[in-house]
Amino acid sequence: MTEVSPIIERKSKSILIIENDEGLVELLEELFNYEGYQVRCYKEADDISSLMEDFTPDIVLIDYLLPGINGGELCAQLKREPSTKQIPVIIFSAYSQVLLSLGSYGCNAFISKPFELSSLLDQINKCLENPLKVFTGEGFEKRAAATEKVNE
Question: d(Cα 66, Cα 43) in Å, to the nearest integer?
Answer without folding.
Answer: 8
